[in-house]
Automatic annotation (TrEMBL):
The protein's name in its UniProt record: glycine dehydrogenase (aminomethyl-transferring)
Species of provenance: Devosia pacifica
Residue segments, region Disordered: 1-20, 473-516
GO molecular function: glycine binding; glycine dehydrogenase (decarboxylating) activity; pyridoxal phosphate binding
Pfam families recorded: Aminotran_5, GcvP2_C
Length: 516
């Protein structure tokens, strides 16, 4: 097989979205140290006498050696870097288990309104009544959508919310004299944060195996229950993209054993407005505002993972929370009352995320949120139907929810791996799907289209997936083994880069790079 001028195997299909994405055609971008130098600055500043008396012996003893750049140089550098990144605004993001949906610009406009964007967390409460009203209304709709009794807004992300939910369970059991319960049941298909959270709080984790159809068996849960079990941590819809058919029976079994039901709400996007988790018997559930209600996702935050609580756990909700006074004004309760937990984070949480999430809710309405969930399910099942004859569907007998799980059986004995297949997607302008997760299937490829994507986008993605699948089976391994060929960076040795990171820049171009 020959190679084209950009090092990409010829005959590898037509990259249907490369022209729109464009990132693969951009040149390499040097470091700031390679653009500027340490002898000059982009601005003219007079020499200044700087006293070190206030530095307590921590003053610098060597030059800072930061590269000096002009403002245009700095601006162009960061703009070019941004164009090398993939994003939801640049192209389709089929990342399963980690919803990457469109962030409506209306949300951004509302979050930038004066009175929201310029708030300070230490302002007097009388000056932030509008912000408190946002928190109160957001809480109301989260409780309405889930049919629960209390909500804590302050957790900063899903894992932080899991921690709080399990903390309330631990507090409730200690309050009723059952601190001996030290076991948490976690299905094998759970998000990795679930067992990590339980272990962090001092619990022992007992795995519940998945059935062959990817769901949790209520009989296996009953068998694992004992007087020492504190809770089960179950994701529903689960990480295989399936709704748990026995969820009500599982909740009943857990409650009959004196334990609590923690539901991982990462996939609430698939059922919002359609199913109320409280009706299923859950006691605590975190809701990722970034995944379900379209606040920004990725890049480490800012995130928000509010936790809703059942009537049994509501007394243990942490501060702060909003309370309406007799005169109609809003107050922020900042000190624990009765059994309430203390703070789990500073201040009041991510106000910008509250505004964005509430904007999304109000602009959709209850029927619109339900339609969004149904559209997410429809899109996932459309991809499943279009690819089922060429890509192995892991659980073909179930309708997918918001995401569909494929595996590597369709290219067995071809020499192509799941990693190769995902990297080849980059050459076609698509971000790869989630790879090798969940662990219950070999060579997993988890695809989530979200409700935001059009049929045209889904068809373009499916066309590329079909072309790649056919090439893999036809023995065109060169298309996969070196992919990506057209990205700003070729395939990296991620393991070596993580184990041997280069954290200090040195002006030696001949130096071996750990990741290349």
């Amino acid at each position: 097989m020959s190679m084209n001028t950009r090092g990409r195997p010829t005959g590898a299909g037509t990259p249907s979205t490369l022209a729109a994405n464009g990132a693969a055609l951009l040149p390499d971008e040097p470091l700031l140290f390679e653009i500027g130098d340490t002898e000059h600055s982009g601005v003219d500043l007079p020499d200044a006498e700087i006293s070190t008396a206030r530095l307590g012996g921590f003053e610098r003893t060597a030059p800072l050696d930061l590269a000096g750049l002009t403002e245009p140089e700095a601006m162009r550098h960061y703009v070019r870097l941004s164009r090398l990144n993939h994003s939801i605004d640049a192209g389709f993001y089929p990342l399963g288990s980690c919803t990457m949906k469109h962030n409506p610009r209306l949300n951004e406009k509302m979050a930038r309104l004066p009175g929201f964007a310029d708030l300070h967390p230490l302002q007097p409460k009388s000056t932030v009544q509008g912000a408190l009203a946002v928190m109160e209304e957001l809480s109301h709709w989260l409780l309405t959508l889930t049919n629960t009794s209390a909500v804590a807004l302050t957790p900063k992300a899903g894992a932080h919310g899991e921690l709080l939910g399990m903390m309330t369970i631990k507090a409730a059991q200690e309050a009723r004299g059952e601190a001996h319960r030290k076991i948490v049941l976690v299905p094998e298909s759970a998000h990795g944060t679930n067992p990590a959270t339980a272990a962090f709080l001092g619990y022992s984790v007992k795995a519940i195996p998945a059935r062959e159809d990817g769901t949790v068996d209520v009989a296996a849960v009953r068998e694992a229950l004992s007087p020492d079990v504190a809770a089960i941590m179950l994701t529903n819809p689960n990480t295989c993209g399936l709704f748990e058919p026995d969820v009500v029976a599982i909740a009943e079994a857990v409650h009959n054993a004196g334990a609590f039901f923690y539901c991982d709400g990462a996939n609430f996007n698939a059922i919002m407005g359609v199913v109320r988790p409280g009706d299923l018997g859950i006691d605590a559930m975190h809701i990722n505002l970034h995944k379900t209600f379209s606040t920004p996702h990725g890049g480490g935050g800012p995130g928000a993972g509010p936790v809703v609580l059942s009537e049994a756990l509501a007394p243990f909700a942490p501060v702060p929370f909003v309370r309406r006074n007799a005169d109609g004004s809003l107050d922020l309760v900042e000190h624990a009352e009765a059994q309430s937990l203390e703070r789990i984070t500073a201040f009041q949480g991510q106000m910008g995320m509250y505004v964005r999430a509430l904007t999304y809710m109000l602009s959709h309405g209850g029927d619109g949120l339900a339609q969004a969930a149904k559209d997410a399910v429809l899109n996932a099942n459309y991809i499943k139907a279009r690819l089922a004859d060429v890509v192995t569907v892991s659980f073909p007998d179930h309708h997918a929810m918001h995401e569909v799980l494929f595996d590597d059986r369709f290219f067995e004995s071809t020499g192509v791996s799941t990693l190769d297949f995902a990297k080849a997607l980059i050459d076609e302008g698509f971000h790869p799907m989630t790879m090798y997760f969940p662990l219950v299937v070999h060579g997993a490829m988890l695809v989530e289209p979200t409700e935001s994507e059009s049929k045209q986008t889904l068809d373009a993605f499916c066309d590329v997936m079909r072309d790649l699948a056919n090439d893999a089976r036809d023995g065109n391994t060169e298309r996969f083994s070196g992919a990506p060929y057209t990205a700003p960076r070729r395939r990296l040795d991620e393991t070596r880069a993580a184990r041997q990171p280069i954290l200090t820049w040195e002006p030696d171009d001949a130096r071996a790079q750990a990741a290349e």
